[in-house]
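Intended use. Records such as the ABC transmembrane type-1 domain-containing protein entry shown here are meant for training and evaluating sequence-to-structure methods. They are not intended to support clinical decisions.
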Amino acid sequence: NILFNVFYAIFSALAFVSFIPMLDVLFKQTKEVFEKPIYNGIGDLKDYLQDYLNYQISQQLEIDITSTLVIVIGIVLFFFLFKNIFNYLALYNITFLKNGILKNLRSNLYGKVLEMPIPFFVNKKKGDLISRITADILEIQVSYLSMLEVIVREPLTILFTIIVMFTISPELTFFIVLFIPISGFFISIIGKKLKKDSTEVQKEQSNFLSILDETINGQKIIKSFLAESFFTKKFNSINSLLFKFSNKVINRKNLAAPFSEFMGILVIGILLWYGGKMVLINESLSGTTFIVFMGLAYNILTPAKNLSKSFYSIKKGNAAAERVFEIIDIKATNKERQLKKINDFKNEIKFENVTFSYDSNVILDSVSFKLKKGESIAIVGTSGGGKTTIANLLNGFYQTDSGAISIDGENINNIRKDSLYKLISIVTQESILFNDTIKNNLLIGNENSSNEEVLESSKNANAHEFIINQENNYETLIGDQGNKLSGGQKQRLTIA
């Protein structure tokens, strides 16, 4: 990609230089050279190339003016053709790099979300996590990865263009070189607040997704309690803040292109004044060469604008990147490979002086009991008494404050989670199903189960009869969270 960008930058500069012989022929300004020039070393390279080109053109003009014009126009077309070919090749290659980075970023973030323990999700809004995986990743794509297209190409284009301009007129090139750091200074001042405003936008986007999620999932409650106006006010408040911060960010970003263009035109105005004196008064520069020099100067404006826009984009993308890597950089606390693997349950489950609390609220206080293999146990108590907490602790979803939970004498903290989960089946108070077919929901965690095993588990849970009455039997799509099924059907399918 770098090689293609180098060739693009070279041909971009030479494409404008190729206008000089064409304009000289068109306006009959070609310097007549009838003796073939002699090369005298690298120090004489510029004059040699000019004289050699003028010699060839002079020879051709003696034959036919029209064919000479066709040739010099062909030279211009040649350079512009290869400039655009190398531009396409550079963009073609960078596409795979950009999308590859994006793919890996999504995979790493999603993998980290799956790796996180249950307490992590208790303290995080669902909308915030979704916003990081979707909106923040998209912002990184727009802000950071688009920078990959210009980070090499535009500086190289500016560099090679300035080199060519310097060979034409060092005096005029000085104004261009002076313009770049001055413009960069003002751009950096404007961009400082962009990151702060962008952070606010990302925060409000996560709140926006959270209220949407609550509204969609809580439709029955919202309608039954006539709470539409309450949620509308809540939504409008978040939407207004998002509107406010988005306007600030976008308007700051929109300032980049006009500011860069004005600074560029200001320099071109100075060049026209100073260069005009060199052409009209001092006669140290030909008119056609000055026109091409101005074209080269304008050729710097576009990459300069792109770089300034990219600078603003990076400032804007920093906020999104920080939110994404805040999740990716979380260290896993458990070392699964060092833990013990168990294959079966033989004797008993034992709780010994188990204490557990959510924040400062104690739920279980020195609880002890045993569960023998083969026993059916019902834990009865008031709401909030810790019944669900006991199940969560047994599954290893949370860590006890003190005490120990063991299976056949082995502390569950020393057991690998994957082997622990294979020994436990859980049906939660709220039926958790996925937007897929009935069969695929039954196969979750047991992908290699045969059709006979699927049928047997369905019959054991009294789910087979309602399944075969569905439109597509076991291949019926049950909708988001199983919303196409009744409450009882969801429960039976969850048990199966």
